[in-house]
Amino acid sequence: MSDKQNIASPHERRPFKDHGHVDVVTLGGFTLGRGVFEPGWRWSDDVKPIAGTDSCQVHHTGMVLSGQMTVRFDDGHELNVGPGDVVDLDPGHDAWTVGDEACVVLDTGIAAYAKPA
């Protein structure tokens, strides 16, 4: 069955502790999130209390629409991402927004993200 849902009217909004939220649309077996990571957002401050893990354990796949973010993996290497970057991010990382602009990301790896453990 074909279906549609506009991300501006998501099925679910998951607020972070502070500094943003993720809007979630699920159609059949497909889930898409639009994360709005406001200036000052950091996974270890804003999502870790919700997830209950030492680092983000979600496999993210998606595209950055606006803003900048740095992702630091548990092994220490870092990846900077910005507008137009398509990403495939393995579990085991922290991340934070860079600068004074919100980082907006479309993410297909969002089904379990920012949900209480």
Structure explained in plain terms:
Helices cover 7% and strands 44% of the residues. The chain is mainly β and 117 residues long. The longest helix has 4 residues, at 43-46. The model has no long low-confidence stretch (mean pLDDT 95). This is Cupin domain-containing protein. It comes from Kribbella ginsengisoli.
Q: Concise description?
A:
The protein has 117 residues and is mainly beta. It is 7% helix and 44% strand.
Content-based structural category = mainly beta
Describe the strand arrangement of the main beta sheet, using strand numbers.
1-2-3-9-4-7
Beta-strand percentage?
A: 35-45%
How far from one another are the termini?
Answer: 32 Å
Q: What would the CATH topology be? A: Jelly Rolls
Could you name the CATH class?
A: Mainly Beta
Considering DSSP H and I runs of 4 or more, what fraction of the residues is helical?
A: under 10%
CATH superfamily: Jelly Rolls
Sheet having the most strands: 6 strands, antiparallel
Please count the beta strands (DSSP E, at least 2 residues each). 9
Shape: globular
Known CATH architecture: Sandwich
Domain count: 1
Instruction: Give Rg in angstroms.
Output: 13 Å
State mean pLDDT (0 to 100 scale).
Answer: 95
The succession of helices and strands, N to C, reads EEEHHEEEEEE
Structure annotation, total helices: 2
InterPro entries: RmlC-like_jellyroll (IPR014710), RmlC_Cupin_sf (IPR011051)
Protein name: Cupin domain-containing protein
